[in-house]
Each structure stands twice: as structure tokens, then as C-alpha cells.
């Protein structure tokens, strides 16, 4: 995914960005600021430019993050992902007209399929009671998300939905009393189902999505089984009568 | 049938890969598509020998050789893709057993053929697991076998011990396994682990003759005769550790129960009735086939629809039948071990159909099409993530239960993506006959067969010992050959090997 974003921004060597290397990371950040984000004037970029003395660079980077209003993200990858997203957004806003044809409606027409954009569920819940676009509300959601380590999303309502799920699945009393899952864990990237051998960027998220889908299907099936069992309580009356039995020749 | 010298016949056959042969058009008249069959070197010999024998001058009578039957099916109207022979193929009525063929639902000329389903509609295999191990069962093996034999009536003309009246039967035909659920004979989880969820919604008992119902009524919950059996088996080898653990099979030595049965006299009568009706329809609609046994009717004709609805009722009958036997097996085990079936973890691993025609969506030439898939002596084997397989097997692919012959081993396979593309998600169903029933009766002595099983330490209870030689392992192809061919060709994947320790037979 990072590679795709770098490619979209026209990075000269998107394949060679090694994220484990701090220096490499620093130069990628510098490239982003120089070419795309341009938050500072050229003179102000001096500290970021100082790749030879990483101490100075780190200091400059810290300030840069704050000036960019980057949410507090822990890992290098998260920070870079956020910056890339930010850069792409700026690039887009330079000339939105250019991308007008690239929207789901237009693509939907090409597929000859109608696609509905689902409104975030949360909006309906709060409708009329709380102004969900209120500044305080937004900052509250962001703070809550930070606390629970929910990744940043530009739409705070979607983020709130993710928060709700985590609370429901991990922190609710029912979840806390749940027995831990026993059995041998299986590395999910080793299943019989191959999505794409050459493209881990496609393979990995596909597997995760499929697992989530299977999980919700399992929940549905369990509910169905529970319903059947509750009906069985009323109707079941198995009988056998050995007198009827006859073994053939 | 075109009679040519054997060497001329061979010109129409071409080996396209290590495990697959192509049957070119012209092998039989009017072929709409090509045929193909999957074999390894040993099965290949059997296949070609059969053809060679049929080419001898003066060879008449009996069924046509399997290859010819595949080609005749390829000449039926509306067939798409290829007419496919699985490794366990052997001659049968019209269609060879182990032949699958798909017909385009959108083509008004497409046909449905009872010969493509077989007389024992929805004959199939169900596998129950337990949490017992061989060491728990060995000391009480004889008693347990006897107890199973006492619970499950077997043999020609046997009658079941679950009380049923005519109204119950009507409901069971319509509801399939839902009837067994409602009456409390099975668990909710059983339905989940059954092909088609144990119920064909298209069933219409009104399309079934009263003769069929009369034959079927007393037979519910009975095993039947022929190749049907119930076996107590132990896990002999695990090839795919992860998939097997998804099925609740953790280690070698674990005990499972395999039930192989169908729709008994009921299905047979439904098929017979349909054949009579269809002969008339063929004349009316001027449908020409290469073989009189390939009686068929257009899918959307009254006769075609009547058959499909009656067939679905027979399929439901078979599921109720296997469900009733599941109930009886659980009772027998619970009594033997003084506990409950729940505590023995006697869940259904899966339930497959061997003889059935179903409407399925497949990709043909890059486009999704709705097909009527005939599987006769062939098992559905859908790949991982197919929407029609249970959620528990979404990652492994559908379990495929392959019953061996009496006293040999059985296998559990899983479906693959390659099988979906090459064979419409179908694979083998068992060993497949090598000798005809009559020939087996002439050549093999039943005492020898029983003695041999005893030597192998397999307890056996049979209702009619004199028919046992028909089912002797010598009469069949080697199931391991069959399964290995499917595995090597990639149309399904080996998962578990099972070995019997007790057999109950008709």
C-alpha cells in the first residue's frame, strides 16, 4: 500500500524505500516536504535537510510533526502512511477538477451496477440529539480513539464506529467474561486459499477481510443454530419403536 | 454405437497430461463437446482394456464401456464445458458412474436425465466424529458392532424403527433434514455441516407417485443393501494437519463413524417413474440420443420439472434417512459408553451427495452461467471461500468424503480452486467397480471374504452374507489409486485417511 501511494506521488524509487532504516525514512520525509507538502519555506527546512546529523534532524522532525498537526502515531510506518495520505490530499486539492471522473458513481456506471454509499450508522443514532460535526464532539472522538489506539481516519464518525466495536468486543462485561479461545493458532497467511502470490499488498488485507467476513458469518450461523434449538425445545419428541424394526435377508 | 477396430478407436483418445485424457469429437456421433477422463497408469489400463473388450467382434450385451458412455453424454443437447469422467468411473445405466456433466439452464434445448443422477438418488456419505480413540473402542468392539447392528436395520426389505405415518413422510419429503430437526432426531449443527443444508427447497411431494411413497415409508432409517454400509473407522493418516483440525480430527487413532446410504426403494421408484415419462417426452420433442438408456427431457418441460421436483423429494428422503441413522448411531454409542452423544462430541463432520443434479453457478468461458450439474457417482468439491460451503470450512475448502470398499480404507479430501475450474467443482466418490456384480458372485466365495476381514481384525455384521462377495475389495478398483489420481490432478486435496475396525452391511 505504501508503495502504491509513493508511486501515485511520483516518488523516483518507490520500490527501494526501506522503512526499517531511520535515515531512509528521514530522506523520504524530506522528499515529501520538498516536493509535495511544502509546509515550510525553503529556509525553514534547514533542520530537516540536515541528514548528516540525525540529532538535529530528529529535533526538526519533532517540530515538523507538530506543525503538520499529525496525530500522535507511534511507529514510523504509521507516521509515513499519515504523511503520504496528507500529501495525496494536498495534491488532490491543487486541482480537484482533474479527478472529477474518478468517483464511485462514475465507476459504478461503468460496471453497470448501482452502488449505494452507506451513511455511517453512527450518524443515524445521534441524529437530532447531538451535533456530530461539533468541534468538541470531534476532538472527543479523536481523544477516545487515541486512547484505544484506533488508527486515524479523516471521517471521525467512521472512527467512532471502530471505537464502538472495540469497546463492544474487548471491553464490555460480556467480552471480559468470555473464555479465552483455546486450540492451536494457525498462521492465517498459510491457508489453502491463495489470493495473489506476487502481491503481498493485496494478499494480506484480503486475508484479513476474509477472516472478518468468516467471523461475522459464524456469528450469524450460531444465532441460527440457537434459534433452531429454541424451537426444538417446543417441537422435538424423538421416538423409536424396536418392534417395527426388521432386518432384511 | 460405432464399432471400429480398437486401434482406430484409440485415435480419438489423447493423453493431455499425466492424469487426464481427452476424448475427441467423433468418437461417438453428434458430440456437442469433448469428453475427458482422469486416470493414473493403473486405472488407465482398466479403462482401455474395457474399451478393447467391447471392440472385439461379436461383443454384445451388458453396458457400454465407460469411455463410450462419456462420449454419448457429450452428445446430449445443451451440455457445456466437457463431459467428465472421474478416476472411479465404471459403466452404469446411461451415464457411467463417475461421470459428471453440466447443462446450460438458459438454453431452452438443455436436458435433464435421470440416468445422469442414478437410481439411488442422493446416495451419499456422512461422517460423524467422536472424541474416542482406538484403545477405548477395541475392548468393546464386538458389542459396539452388535449394538449398531441392532439399532440400524440393514438389508434388502429391512424396516426402520422410527415410527412414521403417511403424513410424516409427506412432511419429511418436503422438509428434508428440517423434519429431522423439528422432530428432534438431529442437532442444529448437523444441518450446518450438510451439503445443501440437508434440504432441497425445490422438492414437491405431489410429483412423487404413490407407489414410491409406499415403498419408501417403512424404509426410513434403514441402511439398505448393495454397497451401503456403516463403518466404525479410525484415523490412519493425516495429510493436512490444519484442515483436519478444522474438522475436529486431531490425532491418529481417533474414532469416527461413516454412514453410506441413500434414498432406498423410494429413489429407485422415482427414477423408474421418470424414465417412463421421459421416453414419451423424447418422442414428442424429438430429442435424439446415442443410447436409449439416456432418456431425458428438456429442463423446462413439464416432464423435466416433474422429475427435478420428485428428485429433490427423494434427495430429502435420503437426508432424513441418514439423519435417522445418525440418531441411532448416537444412541448406540451413548448406551455403550454410558454417556451422552454430546459428551462423546459426536458431531457431523460433513454429509455429501454422490448421485444428484443441482442448479449451480459456474464460470464458463469467463462468464458466470447458471448450470444444471449432474453428478452421478461423483462428489461436489467446492474450493475455499465458496458461498455454498459451511462457514467452518471456508478456509479449508469443502470436505469430500470418499468411502472405500468394505474392509479397505476411506478418505477425506478437500475441494480446490483447480477442481472448480476443471471439473465444475467435482471429484471422485469411491473406489468404483472393476468387476460386475454377477462376475463377483461367480468368482469369489463369501466365506473367504468374511474370513479375510476377520483376519484383518475387522468386526462384521451382515444381513445377507451371500451377497457379500459382490462387495469384496477384489470387485473394486483400489480406492487409494482413485484418490491419489484426484490429488495429483489437483481436482481435490488429500486430507485424512481412515481405516475400518467394524462394518455393518446389508
TrEMBL record, chain A:
It comes from the Eukaryota. It comes from Drosophila lebanonensis. Pfam families: RLL (PF10036). InterPro entries: RTRAF. PANTHER family: CLE. This is RNA transcription, translation and transport factor protein.
TrEMBL record, chain B:
Ligation probably proceeds through 3 nucleotidyl transfer steps, with 2',3'-cyclic phosphate termini being hydrolyzed to 3'-P termini in a step that precedes 3'-P activation with GMP. In the first nucleotidyl transfer step, RTCB reacts with GTP to form a covalent RTCB-histidine-GMP intermediate with release of PPi; in the second step, the GMP moiety is transferred to the RNA 3'-P; in the third step, the 5'-OH from the opposite RNA strand attacks the activated 3'-P to form a 3',5'-phosphodiester bond and release GMP. Binds 2 manganese ions per subunit. It is an enzyme of class 6 (ligase). Its EC number is 6.5.1.8. Catalytic component of the tRNA-splicing ligase complex. The keyword Nucleotide-binding applies. HAMAP family: RtcB_euk (MF_03144). Its cofactor is Mn(2+). It comes from the Eukaryota. This is RNA-splicing ligase RtcB homolog. Catalytic subunit of the tRNA-splicing ligase complex that acts by directly joining spliced tRNA halves to mature-sized tRNAs by incorporating the precursor-derived splice junction phosphate into the mature tRNA as a canonical 3',5'-phosphodiester. May act as an RNA ligase with broad substrate specificity, and may function toward other RNAs. Pfam families: RtcB. Mn(2+) 1 binds at residues 120, 123, 228. One of its GO terms (molecular function) is metal ion binding. The active site is at 429 (gmp-histidine intermediate). The gene is LOC115625870. GO terms for cellular component: nucleus; tRNA-splicing ligase complex. Mn(2+) 2 binds at residues 123, 260, 354. GO terms for biological process: tRNA splicing, via endonucleolytic cleavage and ligation. The keyword GTP-binding applies. GMP binds at residues 227-231, 354-355, 403-406, 410, 429-432, 505. It catalyses: a 3'-end 3'-phospho-ribonucleotide-RNA + a 5'-end dephospho-ribonucleoside-RNA + GTP = a ribonucleotidyl-ribonucleotide-RNA + GMP + diphosphate; a 3'-end 2',3'-cyclophospho-ribonucleotide-RNA + a 5'-end dephospho-ribonucleoside-RNA + GTP + H2O = a ribonucleotidyl-ribonucleotide-RNA + GMP + diphosphate + H(+). Keywords: GTP-binding, Ligase, Manganese, Metal-binding, Nucleotide-binding, tRNA processing.
Amino acid at each position: 500500500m505504501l508503495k502504491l501511494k509513493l508511486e501515485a506521488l511520483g516518488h523516483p524509487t518507490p520500490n527501494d524505500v526501506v522503512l526499517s532504516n531511520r535515515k531512509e525514512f528521514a530522506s523520504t520525509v524530506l522528499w515529501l516536504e520538498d516536493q509535495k507538502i511544502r509546509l515550510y519555506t525553503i529556509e525553514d527546512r534547514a533542520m530537516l535537510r540536515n541528514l548528516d546529523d540525525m540529532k538535529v534532524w530528529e529535533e526538526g522532525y519533532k517540530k515538523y510533526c507538530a506543525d503538520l498537526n499529525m496525530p500522535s502515531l507511534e511507529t514510523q510506518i504509521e507516521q509515513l502512511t499519515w504523511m503520504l495520505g496528507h500529501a495525496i490530499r494536498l495534491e488532490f486539492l491543487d486541482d480537484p477538477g482533474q479527478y472529477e471522473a474518478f468517483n464511485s458513481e462514475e465507476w459504478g456506471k461503468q460496471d453497470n451496477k448501482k452502488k449505494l454509499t452507506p451513511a455511517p450508522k453512527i450518524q443515524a443514532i445521534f441524529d437530532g440529539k447531538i451535533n456530530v460535526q461539533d468541534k468538541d464532539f470531534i476532538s472527543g472522538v479523536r481523544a477516545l480513539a487515541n486512547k484505544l489506539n484506533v488508527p486515524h481516519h479523516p471521517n471521525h464518525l467512521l472512527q467512532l464506529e471502530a471505537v464502538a466495536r472495540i469497546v463492544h468486543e474487548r471491553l464490555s462485561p460480556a467480552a471480559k467474561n468470555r473464555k479465552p479461545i483455546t486450540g492451536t493458532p494457525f498462521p492465517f497467511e498459510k491457508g489453502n486459499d491463495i489470493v495473489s502470490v506476487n502481491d503481498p499488498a493485496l494478499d494480506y488485507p484480503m486475508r484479513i477481510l476474509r477472516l472478518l467476513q468468516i467471523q461475522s458469518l459464524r456469528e450469524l450461523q450460531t444465532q441460527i443454530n440457537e434459534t433452531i434449538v429454541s424451537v426444538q425445545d417446543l417441537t422435538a419428541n424423538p421416538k423409536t419403536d424396536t418392534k417395527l424394526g426388521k432386518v432384511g435377508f | 454405437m460405432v464399432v471400429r477396430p480398437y486401434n482406430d478407436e484409440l485415435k480419438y483418445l489423447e493423453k493431455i497430461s499425466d492424469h487426464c485424457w481427452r476424448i475427441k469429437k467423433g468418437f461417438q456421433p453428434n458430440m456437442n463437446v469433448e469428453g475427458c477422463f482422469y486416470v493414473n497408469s493403473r486405472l488407465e489400463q482398466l479403462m482401455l482394456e474395457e474399451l478393447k473388450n467391447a471392440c472385439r467382434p461379436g461383443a454384445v450385451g451388458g453396458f457400454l464401456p465407460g469411455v463410450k458412455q462419456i462420449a454419448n453424454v457429450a452428445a446430449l443437447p445443451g451440455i457445456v464445458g466437457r463431459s467428465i469422467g472421474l478416476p472411479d468411473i465404471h459403466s452404469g445405466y446411461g451415464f457411467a458412474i463417475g461421470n459428471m456433466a453440466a447443462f446450460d439452464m438458459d438454453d431452452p434445448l438443455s436436458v435433464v436425465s435421470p440416468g445422469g443422477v442414478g437410481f439411488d438418488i442422493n446416495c451419499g456419505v456422512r461422517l460423524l466424529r467422536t472424541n474416542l480413540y482406538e484403545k477405548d473402542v477395541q475392548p468393546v468392539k464386538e458389542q459396539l458392532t452388535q449394538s449398531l447392528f441392532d439399532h440400524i436395520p440393514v438389508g434388502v426389505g429391512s424396516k426402520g424403527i422410527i415410527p412414521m405415518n403417511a403424513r410424516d413422510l409427506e412432511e419429511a419429503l418436503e422438509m428434508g433434514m428440517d423434519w429431522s430437526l423439528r422432530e428432534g432426531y438431529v442437532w442444529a449443527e448437523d444441518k450446518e455441516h450438510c451439503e445443501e443444508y440437508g434440504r432441497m427447497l425445490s422438492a414437491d411431494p405431489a410429483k412423487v407417485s404413490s407407489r414410491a411413497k409406499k415403498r419408501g415409508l417403512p424404509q426410513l432409517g434403514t441402511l439398505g443393501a448393495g454397497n451401503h454400509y456403516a463403518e466404525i473407522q479410525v484415523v490412519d493418516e493425516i495429510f493436512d494437519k490444519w484442515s483436519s483440525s478444522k474438522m475436529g480430527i486431531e490425532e491418529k487413532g481417533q474414532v469416527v463413524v461413516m454412514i453410506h446410504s441413500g434414498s432406498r426403494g423410494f429413489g429407485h421408484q422415482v427414477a423408474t417413474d421418470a424414465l417412463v415419462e421421459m421416453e414419451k417426452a423424447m418422442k414428442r420433442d424429438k430429442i435424439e440420443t446415442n443410447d436409449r438408456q439416456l432418456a431425458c427431457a428438456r429442463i423446462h418441460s413439464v416432464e423435466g420439472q416433474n422429475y427435478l421436483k420428485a428428485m429433490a423429494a427423494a434427495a430429502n428422503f435420503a437426508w432424513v434417512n441418514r439423519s435417522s441413522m445418525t440418531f441411532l448411531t448416537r444412541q448406540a454409542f451413548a448406551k455403550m459408553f454410558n454417556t451422552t452423544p454430546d459428551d462423546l462430541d459426536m458431531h457431523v463432520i460433513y454429509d455429501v451427495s454422490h448421485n444428484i443434479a443441482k442448479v449451480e453457478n459456474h464460470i464458463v468461458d469467463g462468464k458466470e452461467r447458471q448450470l444444471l450439474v449432474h453428478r452421478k457417482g461423483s462428489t461436489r468439491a467446492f474450493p475455499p471461500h465458496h458461498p455454498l460451503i459451511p462457514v467452518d470450512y471456508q478456509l479449508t475448502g469443502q470436505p469430500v468424503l470418499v468411502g472405500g470398499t468394505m474392509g479397505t480404507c476411506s478418505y477425506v479430501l478437500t475441494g480446490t480452486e483447480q477442481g472448480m475450474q476443471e471439473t465444475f467443482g467435482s471429484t471422485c466418490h469411491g473406489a468404483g467397480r472393476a468387476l460386475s456384480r454377477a462376475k463377483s458372485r461367480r468368482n469369489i466365495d463369501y466365506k473367504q471374504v468374511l474370513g479375510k476381514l476377520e483376519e484383518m481384525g475387522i468386526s462384521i455384521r451382515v444381513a445377507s452374507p451371500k451377497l457379500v462377495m459382490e462387495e469384496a475389495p477384489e470387485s473394486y478398483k483400489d480406492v487409494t489409486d482413485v484418490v491419489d489420481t484426484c490429488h495429483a490432478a489437483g481436482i481435490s486435496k488429500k486430507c485424512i485417511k481412515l481405516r475400518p475396525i467394524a462394518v455393518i452391511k446389508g
